[in-house]
Amino acid sequence: MSTATHGGAGQDLRRDILTTLLPGFAGPDAPAWLLDLLREGLGGVCVFGTNVVSPAQLAGLTAELRAANPLAVVAIDEEGGDVTRLFFDRGAPYPGNAVLGRIDDPELTRAVGRAVGEALVAVGCTMTFAPDADINSNAANPVIGVRSFGAEPGLVARHTAAWVEGVQSAGIDASAKHFPGHGDTATDSHLALPVVDLPLEALRERELAPFRAAIAAGTRSIMTSHILLPQLDAEHPATLSPRILHGLLRGELGFEGVIVSDALDMAGASGGRGIPEAAVLALAAGCDLLCIGTDNTGEQMEEIAQAVADAVASGRLPAERVADAAARVRALAADARPTGEPVASAAPQLDPGLPVGLPEGLADRVAASFHIAPGTLDRLCATGAVGTVVRVETIANIAVGSVPWGPFALASAPDPAAPAPAWLTDAAEVVLDAATPLPDPSALAGPVLVVGKDLHRHVVAVDAIARLRAARADVVTVDLGWPSDDLAVADIATFGASRGVAATFAELVQDALTASTEVS
Description:
By secondary structure, the chain is an alpha/beta fold. It has helices at residues 7-19, 32-40, 55-68, 97-103, 106-122, 153-169, 200-205, 209-216, 242-252, 267-270, 275-285, 298-314, 319-331, 343-346, 362-369, 376-380, 406-412, 422-426, 459-471, 499-519, and strands at residues 21-22, 44-47, 73-76, 127-128, 173-179, 221-224, 258-261, 289-291, 371-372, 388-392, 428-432, 448-452, 475-479, 492-493.
């Protein structure tokens, strides 16, 4: 980078620029370019599921990263629900946000947040991009859904605060997201730029409530959203908007912590302008730490750093803004943190059968949070066995990724402590997706259990359910996502597809089948 040739001032600027960058990388091993940049002052690294092989491997990786730069942020998207990186190969053992919101016990939410934090401390992470503080006011939302605590501002606010307090009590920095609120959207910002056409007063009454609560709870960082709010800034999405970040988040809400951008490789941020220009605009708007994306390269980082240096040289971006951002990022490592157990002793606790710190009786509380329409279990258990499971496969949003989900996770990633239920392994399975039509409904062994996520959002699922219901009376539909408000295609709704929720659902079905057999 050219600024390094300009003596001490240029070297200071380069170090400050690098401190604002948070790239990802490919594979389980830290590449040489990443370690070299960390030694120069790179702000940190974002760990993704593809970087994780095991808890012990991840602990070794993070130790290597922190050895290269002891001040580095080691961030991870661990929401403790459908979005998981630590349990990317099997699904997270925790109840996700929507389930916690339905139980509505902030002490439980605080305990789950702490449990997630303890697991992350054990593997050497320092920050999680959680909790999701969005209010899921739009049931058609393709990217938030069960990642939200609910659709009511007060509920989401109190659980956001509790989760922040829980995870930070373990020594992990929280990053409440996606400011100023991604819940009232029907577009995925990974793929395009969503628009939320609301006035500021409406945002104050609804979307901003959880962020005010997170700030009051002491969240050390807040992540921005790539959404356009034309009544606040008609030109720039929130991540790139000084009016929204400097004026609203810093000014009106008084947030003094680190502002983290959502990933700049997402179309909502860099579409039409590229990541280097998005990085310049994000820093100018008030972001301090720039999440770049995944599978980045050293060449990309140099290109971004050079674009920021050129913007400083041309006067587009004040050097003081870059220095302020870097100082805020370095301050994250200044506070003493609780010390986790060595990973060798903590690793068994990270097994999904033995989650850290979850209270006794949690499964019963999770089961009680499910919506179960009257008569559903009787219809499912009429013959004492499930005849056919129709598995509705849809494209997972990028935030969730290819994590095993629902009861199928229990079979695809087996755990001796929680084996796949007999009703699932004994049933015939039909996989339904956009390219695979539903077989003749009358030819399927019954009862028929349809299992999917956000069923109402997918035409293939809605059409298949209509055909099945028209042809037979022994159809039960299960939505492990965020169902429609009228629950029209969800006889059972679990409000989550994490491994922990799926195990509870599987046990509920097994218990109902067993009870029906005993009665008969």
